[in-house]
Automatic annotation (TrEMBL):
HAMAP family: Non_canon_purine_NTPase. Keywords: Hydrolase, Magnesium, Metal-binding, Nucleotide metabolism, Nucleotide-binding. Pyrophosphatase that catalyzes the hydrolysis of nucleoside triphosphates to their monophosphate derivatives, with a high preference for the non-canonical purine nucleotides XTP (xanthosine triphosphate), dITP (deoxyinosine triphosphate) and ITP. Seems to function as a house-cleaning enzyme that removes non-canonical purine nucleotides from the nucleotide pool, thus preventing their incorporation into DNA/RNA and avoiding chromosomal lesions. GO terms for cellular component: cytosol. This is dITP/XTP pyrophosphatase. Belongs to the HAM1 NTPase family. It comes from Microvirga brassicacearum. Substrate binds at residues 13-18, 75, 160-163, 183, 198-199. SUPFAM superfamilies: ITPase-like. Mg(2+) binds at residues 45, 74. Signal peptide: none annotated. InterPro entries: dITP/XTP_pyrophosphatase (IPR020922), ITPase-like_fam (IPR029001), RdgB/HAM1 (IPR002637). It catalyses: XTP + H2O = XMP + diphosphate + H(+); dITP + H2O = dIMP + diphosphate + H(+); ITP + H2O = IMP + diphosphate + H(+).
Length: 214
C-alpha cells in the first residue's frame, strides 16, 4: 500500500534542470515543491552502488533535515559499448564545473577507442530512480528507463546534461531538440497516460502510487 504524498515536499537536488522538470511534473497535483538547493542543504556523499541507493541517500538526508517528505532522483546515461558507463558516474564525468559538453565529448572519445563509429554500436539508455522518503524513515521507489542511441555531434539546446546527444527510439530528434512537454509526453486526460523520458516514466509510477490530481 503506497503512502499518499500531499502538501509541501522537498526536491532533494541542487540541479536547476531536475528541479524545473520535477516542478512541471508535480504541477497538476497541487504539491508545493522547494529544493534542497533553495534551502541551502548540504549535498550528501553518494555512497551507493545503484541509482536507487544514491537517490535514497539524498531523499532521506533532505527529509531528516526539513521534517518534510522528500523526492530524490538519481539518474544516468548508460552506453552499451562502454559497459554501461558513465552510469552512476554520469554527473562526475562533467566535473565540478558541471561541464556537460566536455562530458559528452568524453563519451564520444571513449566510443572511438572501442571503434563504435556513428554507424556502429551506439545503443544507450537513460535510467531514473525516484525515491520518496518521509521523516519517519519510510521510503518508496519508482524507476523509469528510455532506450535509444547516442549521436555525435550533439544537437539542440533544450533539456540539460547529456540530452543533446541522446536520440530516443522512434524519434529523429535528440532530447536536446525536444521540448519539455514532448519529453514528458504525459497526457493526463486519458485513462492510461504515457511518458517519453526516463524521469517522466518514473514519475508516472510515483503519481499512480502516491499522488492525487488537484
Amino acid at each position: 500500500m503506497h503512502r499518499p504524498l500531499t502538501g509541501k515536499v522537498v526536491i532533494a537536488t541542487h540541479n536547476a534542470g531536475k528541479l524545473r522538470e520535477m516542478r512541471e511534473l508535480l504541477a497538476p497535483f497541487g504539491v508545493e515543491a522547494v529544493s534542497a538547493g533553495e534551502l541551502d542543504l548540504p549535498v550528501p556523499d553518494e555512497t551507493g552502488h545503484m541509482f536507487a541507493e544514491n537517490a535514497a541517500v539524498k531523499a532521506h538526508a533532505a527529509a531528516r533535515a526539513t521534517g518534510l517528505p522528500a523526492i530524490s532522483d538519481d539518474s544516468g546515461l548508460c552506453v552499451d559499448a562502454l559497459d554501461g558507463a558513465p552510469g552512476l558516474f554520469t554527473a562526475d564525468w562533467a566535473g565540478p564545473e558541471k561541464d556537460f559538453p566536455a562530458a559528452m565529448a568524453r563519451v564520444e572519445r571513449e566510443l572511438h577507442k572501442r571503434d563504435a563509429s556513428p554507424e556502429g554500436n551506439r545503443r544507450a539508455h537513460f535510467v531514473s530512480a525516484l525515491i520518496v522518503a518521509w521523516p519517519d524513515g519510510h521510503e518508496e521507489l519508482f524507476e523509469g528507463r528510455v532506450f535509444g542511441d547516442v549521436v555525435w555531434p550533439p544537437r539542440g539546446e533544450e533539456g540539460f546534461g547529456y540530452d543533446p546527444m541522446f536520440q530516443p527510439d522512434g524519434f529523429n530528434r535528440t532530447f536536446g531538440e525536444l521540448s519539455s512537454g514532448e519529453k514528458h509526453g504525459i497526457d493526463w486526460s486519458g485513462s492510461q497516460p504515457e511518458a517519453l523520458s526516463h524521469r517522466a516514466r518514473a514519475f508516472l509510477k510515483l503519481a499512480a502510487g502516491c499522488l492525487r490530481r488537484a
